[in-house]
Specification:
The chain is of the alpha+beta class and 158 residues long. The protein has one domain: GHMP Kinase, N-terminal domain (Ribosomal Protein S5, domain 2). It is built from 4 helices and 6 strands; from the N terminus they run βαβαββαββα. A 4-stranded antiparallel sheet has the order 4-3-5-6, with helices on both faces. It holds the Pfam family RNase_PH_C. GO terms for molecular function: RNA binding. It is found in: Nucleus.
Length: 158
Amino acid sequence: VIEVEIDAANELSRDDERALENRVRGALETFLETYEFPRLGVRAALRVVSADGNVEAACINAACCAIVDAGLPIDGLLCASSCAILANGTMVIDPTKREESEARAVVCASVLDKKRDKEEIVIVGCSTKGAMTEEEYLDAIALIVDATTSVANFQKKS
């Protein structure tokens, strides 16, 4: 059982907090190896102290770091990032709150870097806001995968 509770310090409505909790829980379920421990219970209590954009990715990354630090069994490293598509088509990785509000679309994706013999990258969660073309969506996902791969490589060295 995985429970996620997010306190966004009045940055999000209660409905948005609940939706975010569900997305974070879904991401965590993909990388925790719960099949070996069917009675394992995990409760992640996340508090957003300051929200300058990319809140969903920050929550997922914080929960992942806490789970790794706790020594729970995992199937790789989970990283998340966001990409904002601005009105002129420019894509910004890890957008600020202002860039997110001015963007015509925002994509947030969770990427699992599996710990197997070969490199295996799996997109385990994605949320979108706004309107974008299919090509823009795929380009945003490619940028997010590149960004999260860099973060995962850094985490492996730490």
